DNA sequence: AGAATTTACAACCATATGGTTGTATGTTAG
DNA sequence: CTAACATACAACCATATGGTTGTAAATTCT
């Protein structure tokens, strides 16, 4: 997921499709690159679970997935806890002295 | 920062140095790769602000930076808010009908 | 002073990534 | 039915990325 979010275009696609779903071609018009390039970005995001695609006739509605974002949040939260643990241990050490 | 966190070794270095600071060579012994490779990873993390280096004699103490993690948290939080906005708008639409 | 240690950095290599164009396939519109 | 459209995907290209080895500089140890 970090790898998928490492690209600015992809982050923007996530942001945009969180607000409201969009077809691949709608997304494609929004960026200064070919349709195929945007389509590949969407594929990467889908692979990482950051967006889902929902067929509707000949088009695919792309929808941002807030759950995936929350999973990253949780990972980062875990890191934060690790850090708090370090502080706690330093405190304990100081109190011993 | 996402790009820096996109590599598993680098995520592990962040995790490890959040717990307690370590020299570059201490880190290097922890991974199945050359010293130079680890040193480059640390440089990338430092460039992204995810760790800081503190000279101590001939060695450099590497320390994970919790503030950087919090900044990502905030970004993801903003995305979450965007999504909540969408839900709110959908609700408003339903209530109109 | 000289040897060993720790870091930095350059040069190089293989593969991944982000882009392109072209072609095929499924779906809607006339 | 045929034309147009939306998507998918392959092939290709330039650059980025993650790794290597080798060398140099700063610091510590004897």
TrEMBL record, chains A, B:
SMART domains: HTH_ARSR (SM00418). It comes from the Bacteria. Residues 1-84 form the HTH arsR-type domain. SUPFAM superfamilies: Winged helix' DNA-binding domain (SSF46785). GO terms for molecular function: DNA-binding transcription factor activity. Gene3D superfamilies: Winged helix-like DNA-binding domain superfamily/Winged helix DNA-binding domain. PROSITE patterns: HTH_ARSR_2 (PS50987). This is Transcriptional regulator.
